[in-house]
Amino acid sequence: MSEKLLDIKNLHVNYGAVEAIKGIDLHVNRGEVVTILGANGAGKTTTLQTISGLLKSNSGSIVFDNKDITQIPAHEIVSLGMSHAPEGRRVFGTLSVEENLMMGAYSLKKYDALTLDWIYEILPRLYERKQQLAGTLSGGEQQMLAIGRAIMSKPKLLILDEPSLGLAPVLVKVIFKAIKEISKSGVTVLLVEQNAKAALKLANRGYVLELGKITHSGSSEELLTSEVIQEAYLGKK
Ligand code: ATP
């Protein structure tokens, strides 16, 4: 069994004539939290969507859990143990919180009650609101629900796209704490975040994406103390 749960080599992704991802190499070891940092339009969401099969690459390879998934459709990738909580929440608004969580388990034969209990434990707000229609939740609560739903499939790899986007600081803390708990339970996490400092503090390693290319990579400590990264992403001169 390879130590690498996810291994991406020379990935290229185009939107028509626009080259969004220009040959990136990236890997995530089992048990790690890895973050991808980058400015708006750098290609972070494109990278995540290509990994989970929502977008097709033009060339390069993606190996997940020792299997080449480059040509595999998204629903099969979910069954292999990868779960993606996309940017912008996308919960089922006319279903209750609990029904949304159940939907997250569709790739399993039946939902796992212990997983559901655990989600309610790490995100108690969801328990309090379990009968409420998801469309009436606040933005932060919808974000919690999107994460909870992604965990219901008991993934090996959880992919999170901007989980703290637009949230008040107190909810950002709740979300990051939940991600930490998820990681501690043994789930490997790939995280895209605008909140670079918080993401690096949580992560083992990070990559910096600029205009479709990886410009820096290293341990979180290396990136947190790098002057270039501090200036560009951590708001320090
Ligand atoms: P943000 O932080 O703003 O979400 P990002 O790093 O996630 O940005 P992407 O959304 O991956 O960036 O976009 C990368 C590039 O690809 C951008 O230049 C964007 O305009 C372009 N792009 C994204 N989606 C499409 C699309 N459907 N059609 C054409 N170009 C696209």
TrEMBL record:
GO terms for molecular function: ATP binding; ATP hydrolysis activity; branched-chain amino acid transmembrane transporter activity. Keywords: Amino-acid transport, ATP-binding, Nucleotide-binding, Transport. SUPFAM superfamilies: P-loop containing nucleoside triphosphate hydrolases (SSF52540). Pfam families: ABC_tran. Residues 6-236 form the ABC transporter domain. GO terms for biological process: L-amino acid transport. Signal peptide: none annotated. Belongs to the ABC transporter superfamily. This is High-affinity branched-chain amino acid transport ATP-binding protein LivF. It comes from Sulfurospirillum diekertiae.
